[in-house]
Amino acid sequence: MAASAQSLLNSGLSNKNQFTYNPAYAGSAGRLFMAIQASNYMGSVSSAPRFGLFSIHGLLFDNVGFGGNVMVTQSGLLTNTTAEVAGSYRAAFTADHSITFGLNMGMFRSNLNGNSAAYNQYVNTDDPLLADGYYDNTVFKTGFGFVYRYKNLEFSNSLPNFQQGTRIKPELVSYLAYSYFTTDNLWMIKPSVSFFTPDQSKELFNINLQGQWNEKVWLQAGYVTNGNVNFGIGFNLDFISVGYSYGYPTGSLGSITNSLQEVLVTFAFGKKDYSHNQDIYGSRFGNKHVKFKPSGKRKDSFANYRTLENEYRSLKDSLKDQESAAIQQKLDALNDQMLSLQDRLEAVHQESDLESFGERMKDGYYVVVSTCDNLKCALGEQKIMLENGTETEIAFNPAKKFYYVFTNKIDEFDKSLTVMEAMRAKGHDDAWVLVYRKD
Asked: Residue 270 in contact with residue 27, Cβ under 8 Å?
């Protein structure tokens, strides 16, 4: 599989479709993800490899991913074809700390295309080695890998071709990256280093720096220690992304080949439940909205509930002295009111230790419309709310590591419940009332 390995090593877009060499990335986009990638050397060497790939993967469950790759590499007379399926399982320690394991298996075919050879007077065309179909070998292959993430730090290791037929191939692929976001959350700067130990070849490093604006446009530049220099550009347009990379060989390779051009087109389908940025493991694997369930019923803390409760008890005592359908009917109505109020109070939670991102929070009531586990998500939710005509603020809960997106302060408790119900009617089903009391 030397030709496929070389295509991977020199690729300027491997960091945009990491599932091709590590099965632990299955499901990492959080949605159904498809990729078509092709590369071609534009040089004077007729046997330079050409590479084509189709990938598809997604989530089966919140922590289980599944997908497959079909990869074809042609180098001179030799064509290598890989078809494999892969699965992943993610174990989360906290919302921003996890490790994902992956396993892939499939078939690897290597065959010689004698009919495509360019002959001259020195070639014996009767040589059986040049006959089409003389060499055609298909074997079973397996591989495995893992991805470790802590906040915006990402580290992965894989042996994508660990077993190929009867051979054990120690082709290690390692990747280390960190995603840094500016305070306005518009720019992401992502330095990364990849390390390859291809079968029967010298170890190589690929050093890359990527910049991305507003999740819409990205630019990157990279250098491989075999002398290749790569430059890339890409655009993200809703569910489709297009990337282009131009690689220029320096050193000894520069005299025999000119450049490597690559194109990558990806599609992502499904609901954007969480982050739009798959580079930092978006969706259920990472930057996500949290369905926060406030704990505890606070019925004894509010006068409305106590008033209803006292009236209910008084009527119930009256019912003991005389049978009355009217009293029973009123009891039933009061009971319904109490149940309704109790349901509302279950969505109320009191906190005292919050770090506000705007003006200092004052004691009062706030309606939380969204809860996120990272600031990027919270800022995105705040932007959406503003576009819909609702001003919100953001606060951080250091104990729970959550960011709250909430309405302006409300002075009256009953009014806060009304606002909460209005927000739920607008589609914010998990809206709840935050009672802020600074100790």
From this structure: no
What pTM did the predictor assign?
0.61
Q: Distance (Å, rounded) from C-alpha 164 to C-alpha 322? A: 87
Q: Give the residue from 140, 73, 143, 85 showing the smallest Cα distance to 111.
A: 73
Domain span at residue 29 reads: 2-285
Which amino acid, one-letter code, is at 261? Q
**Alpha-helical regions (H) of 199-324:** 303-321
Q: Where are the alpha helices (DSSP H) in 198-324?
A: 303-321
* Final residue of a structural domain among 259, 285, 311: 285
Scan for tokens 């014996």, then name that residue: 124
Residues 401 and 305 in one domain: yes
Instruction: Express each pLDDT in 270-312 by its tens digit.
Output: 754 333 333 333 333 333 444 444 433 343 344 555 565 566 5
pLDDT tens-digit series, residues 232-262: 999 988 789 999 999 888 865 555 566 888 9
Q: Could you tell me which residues are beta bridge partners of residue 222? A: 208, 230
- In a 3-state reduction of DSSP, which class is residue 21? coil
